Amino acid sequence: MKQPRLLLVEDDPALAELLEFRFKAENYDVRVTPDGDEALLWASEEAPDLVILDWMIEGTSGIEVCRRLRRDKATAHVPIVMLTARGAEDDMIRGLETGADDYLTKPFSPRELIARVSAIMRRIRPALAGESITVGDLTMDATAHKVTRRGSILALGPTEFRLLKFFMEHPGRVFSRGQLLDAVWGTDSDIELRTVDVHIRRLRKGIELEGAPDPVRTVRSAGYALEAV
Amino acid sequence: MKQPRLLLVEDDPALAELLEFRFKAENYDVRVTPDGDEALLWASEEAPDLVILDWMIEGTSGIEVCRRLRRDKATAHVPIVMLTARGAEDDMIRGLETGADDYLTKPFSPRELIARVSAIMRRIRPALAGESITVGDLTMDATAHKVTRRGSILALGPTEFRLLKFFMEHPGRVFSRGQLLDAVWGTDSDIELRTVDVHIRRLRKGIELEGAPDPVRTVRSAGYALEAV
DNA sequence: AGTGATCGTCACAAACTTGTCATAAATTCA
DNA sequence: TGAATTTATGACAAGTTTGTGACGATCACT
């Protein structure tokens, strides 16, 4: 899955390096700059998923960067987390009013910053924050009712969607036809076991893609499983 | 304009009263309860726009309330701000991981809480904060009650307007007819599910534009969603 | 009271899904 | 190899879900 891209605007080299390291460990793609103007340039070109912005930076001030990010259409809706020195409550209020989404006062723990950034990412980009399931090259966003394979959106019927969802929630495991009927159709359904075969075929057809292998594995005399391909 | 509705779960009467007063002055509709179970009950019935939740409360604990709010479909996406005692960083991490959106440690200034709540409201319910929402080529200015698409002003009936507003506040997500009835018509409305179809058609008709695709997606056996086109 | 807009419901048409079957293909094992 | 078992596939009719036009009721405003 695509990494969320972070722009870190921080002119304390030690802190910048520490945060860069920690965020990279959390699977973020981090870009660092100490300079406000450079930050604006990069932000409008590359549209990061989130900006972490120190209030006191060289060149254009933090609040001015914040304001300009909001004014530029390309970055108007990118979440911003601001960092400032302790005790500057007025700064905080102004920051939030200028359009920042969150605010931390130094010194803060990297864990806290990471937790806050993750909370924002979860809300803004659910697909990037684990509200979607990924198995191999398949990605399912159950909320949006969308399935993607290698970037292409797949069209599945309702039953195939539920079937795939169940498989993706238990990747690699083999399920008998009876188990699949119980899980996907409901315990009280009165349906031929063989019908599962048909829906497996429909699922295979629905997720097939030029040059991509079939992730649905038939286990003879046992059932079916979804493999991470 | 409708006031944003806040649910404040706080068992310190002095703090609760202070916050209630301050938020009312900021034009929020505030409901206060010291009890976790009562909070859950009210939240699932009335679906507040945001929940402020003290970690240490009587009855069900704060984190448990948070978890249950997330689990209940009706409240799964309501933002939560948690309050806790100073120095409990682990609590903070757990809170944010459980699904809270923001976190403050006591003592905090009411101004700070208000600023943070406003920042969240601005992001997730722009319409309530007096800003305009944009989804794809659609723009809605809820205050002026105007919708534009690629520059043209659209004429929508009241219900279609509310329906579109709800969709635009949750772009991409699929909602069942029942959910749409609850959200747009009100929880206590006693209306045929199929009536939603009719209003979806009226909405589609209202926003259709020469050469522009239909952003309303039908998800068979699930409901409807608004796509960013 | 009169006008026009909006609302909820219905009935029917259109579009799509679904479960089953018959048959073909694949696999197992003696 | 050949028979037996198991799975894959195409077709189809029944069933379900959604789209649409029409209609009377209601409401706001004149």
UniProtKB/TrEMBL annotation, chains A, B:
Compartment list: Cytoplasm
PROSITE patterns (UniProt xref): OMPR_PHOB, RESPONSE_REGULATORY
Primary localization: cytoplasm
Pfam families: Response_reg, Trans_reg_C
Gene Ontology BP, a term: regulation of DNA-templated transcription
Domain Response regulatory: 5-121
Residue ranges annotated for the OmpR/PhoB-type domain, each copy included: 130-228
GO cellular component entries: cytosol; protein-DNA complex
The organism's place on the tree of life at top rank: Bacteria
GO MF entries: phosphorelay response regulator activity; transcription cis-regulatory region binding
Keyword Acetylation belongs to the record: no
Residues that bear 4-aspartylphosphate: D54
Gene3D superfamilies, A to Z: 3.40.50.2300, 6.10.250.690, Winged helix-like DNA-binding domain superfamily/Winged helix DNA-binding domain
DNA-binding region: 130-228
Keywords, alphabetical: Activator, Cytoplasm, DNA-binding, Phosphate transport, Phosphoprotein, Transcription, Transcription regulation, Transport, Two-component regulatory system
Function: This protein is a positive regulator for the phosphate regulon. Transcription of this operon is positively regulated by PhoB and PhoR when phosphate is limited.
Protein name, entry field: Phosphate regulon transcriptional regulatory protein PhoB
Source species: Novosphingobium umbonatum
Taxonomic classification: Bacteria, Pseudomonadati, Pseudomonadota, Alphaproteobacteria, Sphingomonadales
